[in-house]
Amino acid sequence: MGHVVGPLILWLTQRETSDFVDSHGKEAVNFQISVTIWMLVSVVLACFLIGIPLLFIFPVVDLIFTIIAAVEAQSGKRYRYPLTFRFIE
């Protein structure tokens, strides 16, 4: 749950500083919650052997999309993560 708590704390403490930080914080929290849901689905599917590859794919996808978002934020662009449920708007 650390991958959700870290972005959540940063977003909650820094969201008042700018709209850009607020936007990226919401996206990061939504994406990390979505990854958690996808991993839970993968665990259930792993019981039927279907989800075993997903248990390895989702952490890699999480890392790749997080790096892409960081690079986009560094260059001043807004980034929307794919495969993300929008819980916080």
Structure in words:
With 89 residues, the chain is mainly alpha-helical. Helix content is 72%, strand content 0%. It has three helices and no strands. Helix 2 (19-46) runs antiparallel to helix 3. The longest helix is centred in the middle third of the chain and has 28 residues, at 19-46. The model has no long low-confidence stretch (mean pLDDT 89).
Quick description:
By secondary structure, the protein is mainly α. Helix content is 72%, strand content 0%.
Tell me the fraction of residues in β-strands, as a range.
under 5%
Anisotropy-based shape:
elongated
Q: What structural class results from the helix and strand content?
A: mainly alpha
Count up the helices.
Answer: 3
Model regions low in confidence, pLDDT < 50 over at least 5 residues: none
* Tally of strands: 0
Furnish the topology, listing elements before pairings.
Elements lengths: L1 H13 L4 H28 L5 H23 L15
List the main descriptive attributes of the protein structure presented here.
89 residues, single chain, mainly alpha
